[in-house]
Amino acid sequence: MLLFRCLIIAALLGSIAEAPAAVRLTPGVPLFVPEGAPASVLLAVEDLRRDLEMVLGAPSPVVTELAVLRGRSAILILGANQAPPRLHDSRVTGRESHGIHVGELEGTPHIVLEGADPRGVIYAIYSFSDEFLDVPPLWYWSGWKPKRRNAIEVPADTVRLFPPAYVRWRAWFNNDTDFLTPWRERSPANDHAVYETVLRLKYNTYEIGSVADLRRDSPPFAVNPDAAGAHARGLVITHHHTSPLGSSLRDWDAFWRRQGREPAPLTVSAHANLAAFWRYHAETAKRAGFEQVWTIVFRGAGDIPFWQTFRDAPAETAARAQIISDMLRAQVAIVKEVTADPAPDMRTTLYNEGSTMFAAGLLRPPAEPTLIWNFVAARRDHFPAEDVRGFKAPPDRLIGYYLNFQFTSSGSHLAAAEGPWKMAANYRIVDATGDRPLAFTVVNAGNIREHLAELSANADMMWRFREFDADEFLRRFCARYFGAAQAAEAAELYRAYYQAYWTQKPSDIPGFARQYLFQDMRYARAVEMLLKDMAAGIHRPNPLDGHPLDRPDTGGGYFRVELRPGDANQVAALLRGTAESGRQFAAIVAQADALMPRIAPEGRVFFDDNLRLRARVMQQLNSLLHESTLAYQAYGNQEARRRHLAAAVGCVESVRAMLDLTQHRTFAGWYDSDRVFGLDALRDKLRQEIASGR
Questions:
Q1: Domain presence at residue 83
Q2: What is the helix (H) or strand (E) element at residue 621, kind and residue range?
């Protein structure tokens, strides 16, 4: 899919053989790959062979000598300084740049796919597959089947040039993968599809938790299989914001037992123990040959501040900030020592407590020229936090940004909510803090499948940041997957879908639309709050107050429901907000139903999975919370409460039915492993309250 703008030039220039003929690729078209091509490129070549066989119906051989072609047109896959210079386009230059053109050897025209470096070659392969074989980046997720053809015609004047991306490191992070992990384990093809999709969308960095495999039977310095898989595909490895140098404190005990000793206590004063733990993980990555952006961070065991884990942590904020600063410097020293590189690529993630300390002026990361200061969107509602909004980067400072499409415990899990406009607004604010382009970006991709349009938009923007326009992107996206004739209407439906979300709190950043959203998991957790009160015989005007994760003082407000004119309390706000949002989603469902028969046949499954059924899910979640709130309001009226709770159960079952409709073919059983949203558990709690007779 040509989501990445390329330069299309009618006349070939001097570095390409002049006036070649058009190329006709027939079944069994050979692929020329020079000897010594990187293993990651060879894996992409295998994907191209699969795509060619899907379209042409015959396997394509790989040859390593041009003489073997003997006058037959072929696809030449070339890196820098490979094959005859006259087949290269001199404009393919710079990090990860790539191109497609027609070149001629001894009177025979060929397709040339070339890159300035191995990832550039990989991107050229997938760009060709998208445009000329009709295999788009999301083919595996969308149920796409390219049409069979007798031959593929490529015009003689074909030139596609893809200059280097605006953002150097463009990272992808799978998180809360209760659906994705078991699905990947079901087949090698599913697992392969994850890395392939990352590369087809032209991301280049893969974020993981731990680089090391510390299972009892693993050899020393064994690597995490997911990290190894990403590395094999040519991706850069980076680490989560809880994972200094690719380590996880959850592995602390296992690490020490593998060293033949009892686990050392976790104390900030035991610098040598922490250094040994971090150094092992750095050594593991170095021995594996990983290309890395090292994560320099100091937090607790899990997504918590370090002082909730380390027994000797100080109580004063300034002292805590000083310890973080000291630990960051120690990690930088370890990376330099292990890599023997005085300027390794690194980033520090200013997450939650780090963001708060930075905004207060208490925490400043080490002033290393290659250390990226990676800011993070505010928790639960995804907008640039105070630390970055008040920051102006020095001219030499590298800046990064981490945005959640999915978020643990309260964010989007069953249905996308943030949208390409909000994504773009986030990154533009952060990019404007400095004079240099953003160096590093990362998105929380969740389980991937629910966020495919947003991930595609993010990938497109990070490549061509200045030109990106969310509306124009959506029209191209819809034309690619649903057909050009319905693209404008489908794109407007996507916009209406995102606009239908309940904005439970007005924006407080000027010009920043949809800053606060009531994402799908908030519906589930709000219903649980109401049921908890009902079970205890409690009725409060503001039943969402007191959630255990509601910490607005640290930027972690959980529900953030603010009263509007006419709202007497949260109960009234819930009834108003869910009614308004529910009506809007119902209208979208009706429009999607009407549009469905006019969608191109090859795109109907994806339209249903990605938009129509997600709108139905959100319509039913609004009804679920609305009915549960009416049941809560019916305090003392047993019959009314039972009636509304029964309706709420029906809504849960409708959500389950909608999700089941997406569990087809490759995705059979996708939602069987639900644990984060907890749909079945929510239904059971509703039934228990009905059975109680209260």
A1: yes
A2: helix 613-633
CA distance to 318, 324, 393, 552, 664, per residue, from 364 (Å): 12, 9, 12, 23, 50
Residue 329 and residue 323 in contact, taking contact as beta carbons nearer than 8 Å: no
Residue 677 has pLDDT above 90, yes or no: yes
Residue with tokens 């020095």: 394
| Residues 175 and 62 both lie in one domain | no
pLDDT of residue 477: 98
pLDDT at 205: 99
Q: What's the pLDDT tens digit per position in 277-304? A: 999 999 999 999 999 999 999 999 989 9
Q: How confident is the model at residue 488 (pLDDT cuts 50, 70, 90)?
A: very high
Q: How many CB atoms lie within 10 A of CB 393?
A: 16
Q: How far apart are CA 574 and CA 231, in angstroms?
A: 47
Residue 97 CA to residue 85 CA, distance in Å, equals 17
More confident residue, 393 or 10: 393
Specify whether the CB–CB gap between 202 and 170 falls below 8 A. Answer: yes
Q: Mean per-residue pLDDT for 103-107?
A: 92
The structural domain count of the chain equals 3
C-alpha to C-alpha distances, 495 to 125, 221, 353, 472, 612, nearest whole angstrom: 32, 48, 34, 12, 13
Residues with Cβ < 8 Å from 307, sequence gap 6 or more?
300, 313, 314, 315, 320
Q: Lowest mean pLDDT: which of 82-96, 211-225, 244-258?
A: 82-96
Backbone angles phi, psi at 224, to 5 degrees: -55, 130
Q: Return the closest-CA partner of residue 234 out of 84, 79, 340.
A: 79
Question: Buried b / exposed e across 547-571, counting CB within 10 Å, b at 16+?
Answer: beebeeeebebbbbbeeeeebeebb
Q: Are residues 376 and 448 in the same domain?
A: yes
- Residue 283 in any domain: the answer is yes
At which residue do the structure tokens 């599809």 appear? Answer: 193
Alpha helices in 340-366, H assignment, sequence order: 353-359
Angle at Cα 473 formed by Cα 234 and Cα 91, nearest 5°?
Answer: 50
Least Cα distance to 529 among 503, 554, 515, 549 occurs for 549
The structure tokens listed for 172 are 């992808």
- State which residues form the domain around 49: 7-162
**Cα–Cα distance between 299 and 377 in angstroms, integer?**
17
Same domain, 224 and 153: no
Task: Concatenate the DSSP letters of all residues of 200-268 into one string.
Answer: HTT--EEEES-SB---TTSPTT-B-HHHHHHHHTT-EEEE-TT-GGG--GGGHHHHHHHTTSPPPP--T
Could you tell me how many residues make up the chain?
A: 694
Q: What is residue 496's predicted lDDT score, i.e. its pLDDT?
A: 98
Strands 440-446 and 399-404: parallel
